[in-house]
Amino acid sequence: MTLKIRPGVMEIAPYVGGEAAIPGIANPAKLSSNENPLGASPKAIAAFREAAAEMHRYPDGGAEKLRDGIARRFGLEKTGIVCGNGSDELIALLARAYAGPGDEVLFSAHGFLMYRLSALGAGATPKAAPEKNYATDMEALLALVTPATRIIYVGNPNNPTGSYMTAAQLRELRRRLRSDILLVIDAAYAEFVDDPGYNAGEELVRAGDNVVMLRTFSKIFGLAGLRLGWAFCPPSIADVLNRIRGPFNTSAPAQAAALAALDDREHETKSLAHNKKWRDWLSAELTNQGYRVHPSVGNFLLVEFADADAADRFLKSRGLILRKMGAYGLGHCLRITIGTEAETRALAAALADLAKGGAKMAAAR
Ligand SMILES: Cc1ncc(COP(=O)(O)O)c(C=O)c1O
After folding, report:
1. Per residue in 38-97, pLDDT tens?
2. Does ligand 1 have an atom closer than 6 angstroms to the CB of 224?
3. How many other C-beta atoms lie within 10 A of the C-beta of residue 158?
């Protein structure tokens, strides 16, 4: 007799995070995980330290103060806010609650990997819709809808492509979906988007009872290591998430740091300005060097290479860690997180050398 594993689980190739080290190279530039290169807000760090003195206490399972802070800051109803151990946890909890064996979960072909993994983890069947120009294609998604479809995840903006759908496009998508299909708008990079035609998702959440918006403190707020994400949901979905989440799924120091981060508008503004300046600079620089750089509204760029593996080896030899994209069906690309000024300049210089034949030198070594 052997243990029985839920169907789908063994199809999961465990998520591999961005690499953080290069053997033999001290202090490499980690441009592989879309983190904030300026670090966390000093106010968040102070709040985290202060919370350490109380680490023998269980956290507030309802994250009341933090949810108050999120509601205030983003003008949302507190009852609809549910915090999670990173938005990753919320992606998985939604799959577990609303899809199972025999059900289908849809997403875009180069959508964030956790959509597929969460569908498999729930025992559901993942289905990926082809993209157009490395962007979500609404018609392709709709064409894959069947009576078995239960959830559609849309990364907006999407990682790793950097593309996004406007509020009008998302409204149209929702309008054309059956009401028993949950639309999950994953807006992990919402704070970086500078387009009045964009909405992170709250307007659609409020319009009915079948849309959820996901957000995170891992990106602009620089708290990736603390694992704090949140969902804004209609009351019925918040109720479901509160039933299936762990009672203490977010830690007390994470809640305290996140609340303080929300108050540090100066750090947020600085982070936003830094990202825009160096994303635009790097994009122009690499385009001039002859690379195909995809337009991105996030804190990262997707770049195509003649031989992405060789480029990755070459960049590593220069102490630069990028994200390989094979798991996304984009083996010809590398994803670059916008780093500090020094890191970004070093990367541009390395890629200029690569364009001049540096890749061959690296391969020959
Ligand atoms: C589109 C997208 N959604 C969700 C996440 C997960 O974020 P978190 O750190 O909150 O789990 C990421 C992280 O890279 C992401 O890129």
Report:
1. 999 999 999 999 999 999 999 999 999 999 999 999 999 999 999 999 999 999 999 999
2. yes
3. 28
Return the ligand 1 atom nearest residue 84 CA: 10
Q: Looking at residue 358, what is its pLDDT?
A: 53
pLDDT of residue 167: 97
| C-alpha of residue 216 to centroid of ligand 1, in Å | 7
**Which conformational region is residue 180 in: left (phi greater than 0), alpha (psi within -120 to 50 degrees), or beta?**
alpha
Q: Tell whether ligand 1 has an atom less than 6 A from the beta carbon of residue 188.
A: yes
- Residue 148 Cα to ligand 1 midpoint, Å, equals 26
Q: What pLDDT, on the 0 to 100 scale, is given for residue 118? A: 97
Cis-peptide, bond into residue 160, ω within 30° of zero: yes
Whether 344 is in the pocket of ligand 1, judged by its Cβ within 6 Å, is no
* pLDDT the model gives residue 223: 98
Q: With a 6 A CB cut-off, is 155 part of the ligand 1 pocket?
A: yes
DSSP, collapsed to helix, strand or coil, labels residue 69 as helix
Which residue from 35, 218, 221 has its CB within 8 A of the most atoms of ligand 1, so it is best to mutate? 218
Distance 289 CA to ligand 1 centre (A): 30
**What is the Cα–Cα distance from 151 to 99, expressed in whole angstroms?**
7
CA atoms within 13 A of residue 158's CA, in its CB half-sphere? 28
The pair of three-digit structure tokens given for residue 5, joined into one six-digit string: 């594993």
| Ligand 1 centroid, distance to 1 Cα (angstroms) | 39
87 close to ligand 1 (CB < 6 Angstrom): yes
- 8 A C-beta contact, residue 21 and residue 250: no
Q: Is 216 exposed, middle or buried (0-12, 13-18, 19+ CB in 10 A)?
A: buried
Q: How do residues 126-149 score in pLDDT, each as one tens digit?
A: 999 999 999 999 999 999 999 999
Q: Which among 177, 229, 187 is positioned nearest to 207, based on CA atoms?
A: 177
Residues in the chain, pLDDT under 70:
358-365
